[in-house]
Design a protein that fits this description.
- By secondary structure, the protein is an alpha/beta fold.
- Helices cover 38% and strands 18% of the residues.
- It has a domain of 103 residues: Rossmann fold.
- The strands form two sheets. It has a three-stranded parallel beta sheet.
- α2 packs across α3.
- The model has no long low-confidence stretch (mean pLDDT 92).
- Bound molecules: NADP nicotinamide-adenine-dinucleotide phosphate.
- The site of NADP nicotinamide-adenine-dinucleotide phosphate has 17 residues, from α3 and α4.
Length: 159
């Protein structure tokens, strides 16, 4: 399953590189291996150790878009301990944001642009559908067990 996911990221979604964080012992050296020239821009959905590893591997004047800290939600004892020395000396800019910040002015443009990309095959949509109201608990728990691929949907009834 896990190596299939790496193949999916590279072959179907078109990422240049991908790895499975669950198989890596030291994320700092993993990122160094995949980004030998350093990281300029990091979109953070994860927080925790992944964020620390990214900051260690950032280039001078690197930028981080802080979207979410899913590792904190799953394991609240493992907060990020990112190196502020790195942040300062490399002049890294970290900017948090909420999608609702953009809900009024660019939402309609986003919807039509996304629709066009999907229709043109430039954006790939992955959905994991489970069926029936009785599947809600396992669908929800599966989000935290690495069992889900793509947007999780529970279909309650056929239209
Ligand atoms: N800023 C905003 O406005 C905004 C809005 C919506 C969502 N978010 C954030 O965006 C992030 C993604 O949301 P989502 O709905 O796409 O979540 P999701 O469907 O539950 O997916 C979470 C992903 O994170 C991976 N993951 C979990 N723990 C990880 C770790 N320690 N290291 C690396 N990867 C890890 C999971 O992989 P496995 O399943 O293999 O563990 C899964 O692929 C979340 O942090 C969420 O809070 C932010």
């Amino acid at each position: 399953m896990q190596s299939c996911l790496v193949d999916l990221l590279k072959e179907k979604l078109g990422f240049d590189e991908a790895f499975n964080y669950k198989e890596e012992k030291d994320l700092k050296s993993t990122l160094q291996r995949y980004f030998p020239q350093g990281i300029d821009i990091y979109f953070d959905n994860v927080g925790g150790e992944m964020l620390d590893a990214a900051v260690t591997n950032m280039n001078t004047f690197g930028r981080i878009a802080a979207c979410g800290v899913i590792s904190d939600y799953i394991n609240s004892e493992k907060h990020s301990a990112l190196s502020m020395v790195d942040v300062i000396y490399k002049r890294i800019m970290i900017q948090g944001f909420l999608s609702s910040d953009f809900s009024t002015d660019v939402f309609n443009d986003f919807m039509s642009m996304t629709r066009d990309y999907i229709l043109a095959g430039k954006l790939c949509v992955l959905e994991g559908i489970s069926y029936g109201i009785e599947s809600i608990p396992s669908a929800f728990v599966g989000l935290f067990r690495g069992e889900n691929v793509g947007k999780k949907i529970v279909q309650i009834a056929k239209e």
